[in-house]
Amino acid sequence: MTILYNTIGYHINADKFAYWAGENSIPKQFVVRQADTNTEVLRKELPPSQFEALFELNLQLCDFSEIREKGEYILEVGDFQQKIVVGEKPWEVLAQGVLKSFYFQRASMELEPQFAGKWARPAGHPDTEVLIHASAAEAILPEGAVISAPKGWYDAGDYNKYIVNSGISVWKILAVVEHLPQLASKISFNIPPDELQLPDLLVEVKWNLDWMSNMQAPDGGVYHKLTNLSFDSMQMPHTCLNPRYVVMKSTAASLYFAASMAQAARVYKEYIPKVAKFWLNQAERAFAWALDNPEQHYVQPEDINTGPYANSHTDDELYWAAWELWISTGKDTYQKRIAPQALTAELPQWWSVSSLGAISAAMVKKDQGAQEHILQMAQQLRAQQKQSPVHLAMQKDDFIWGSNGIVATQGMILLIAAQISSEKQYIQDAVRQLDYLLGVNPLERSFVSGFGKNPPRFLHHRVSAGDDIDEPIPGFLVGGPNIEQQDAHRLDPYPKDPPTLSYVDKRASFATNEIAINWNAPMVYLLWAVEELLTY
Ligand code: 9MR
What we know:
Blueprint lengths: L1 E3 L5 E2 L5 E5 L7 E6 L5 E6 L4 E3 L4 E7 L7 E7 L2 E8 L4 H13 L8 H4 L13 E3 L13 E2 L13 E2 H17 L20 H14 L9 E5 L17 E5 L1 H18 L4 H20 L22 H15 L2 H4 L18 H10 L4 H19 L16 H19 L3 H13 L24 H5 L50 H18 L2
Parallel strand pairs: 2-9, 10-14
Antiparallel strand pairs: 1-3, 3-7, 4-5, 4-8, 6-7, 8-9, 10-11, 12-13, 13-14
Helix pairs in contact: 1-14, 3-4, 3-5, 3-14, 4-5, 5-6, 5-7, 6-7, 7-9, 9-10, 10-11, 11-12, 11-14, 12-14
The structure holds ligand 9MR.
């Protein structure tokens, strides 16, 4: 028997749900006491149990939403006691840590102890001498020619840099300050300041945008990735000396680049107008290249076996980039490229991005059709939550590679719906998604390294594996339960059913325990936006 609860804390203004998972439970009531004085502050009947199919557990809801005073409490069911924290900003330190993880992913730079603490490390992957791969060769830059494309974030547990995944990640992080501009000056997380005096969040994202900006070929097309031929072994960045390549220009990469640089140009305009203008011009050139080369889909060259992020349907990328460019430039030519039939209700993930265009249209352009589209997506998520006793929008077949990123993205959509509709219930719905990631799951763990109860320790992450420090680098949301278990051949068998148990905290589990920028990015949005929207 146990209590599933949010192991980081509960917000004073949010609904507060924990779940009693007791076999043939005898207790009829639950009690909440103040931790220091043991004074009883709440006593309620436990409702009948409900079967949570995603967890295969019978659960009884302990709803202690009435408690709106910050403090530490004891939640008591029968003889079982669980400490619970209620706070005004319960997730702020976590939100800082999740954003700080991007700093720990920086390529081409030494991480100094003042900022990185015990995880300080020498610079790795300077990427100032990157070879043109055969797949990217052209007269002006033949095979073996050298370009410079330093900086950027390592994608994940590996040290390669991929435009597709970078594009979606920077977009989701910048959306925080584009949607909630008041946050720009409030967010700080101890990273080296830059000489431009940008807010911390923009300093961090610029590290990656500066790299992306260097990935454009002379004709406007964008290289799909900057990579080794094969993954490095589990070694520290500064010990990696394998040659690095830029690999074929692709339609998808060019459109991801166009969309995210166009959004970045809007966000940075008030701070660094010249750079923003340059990025916007780059975005326009990348878009033009994609129109001229609509079918140049990424095909992994035979001598390369790092992540493909291949995408052969680019209608959704075109839709997204056209919206971003129209909003940023006001030019009709882009508006004409917005093909309504390309918009789907799929959650925005690296393989499906039309809804990102709809989000910018809804939030920045206040386009009514786009707003309705997002609200419909949110209503669908809410309908899914209603099927689940713990109010989780996930369906069984959502537990794939990076399922935790899906949970966070669903939360992000609910929060955007809250901003469009001013309907506060959507904020509460988003908190349920967060509850799952921070402890309301049958593994009874937080999925963020370094935070909460029983967090992942053995990340599939080369730095955390190679640094000889016991604790993994903090602030990473691991991929999470994945019923496809692509790593099963490297591990002892692990459960598959129910899907939420299909996870192992082992280094070899690249399919459940890797970290990645595209999973942390929606977590950044979820954490910062939910706390801001709950503060009233
Ligand atoms: O997140 C990606 C997942 O959707 C794909 O199924 C998987 C296999 O192609 O790749 C995942 O992304 C990995 C990328 O290819 C390389 N860097 C690590 C990424 C996270 O595992």
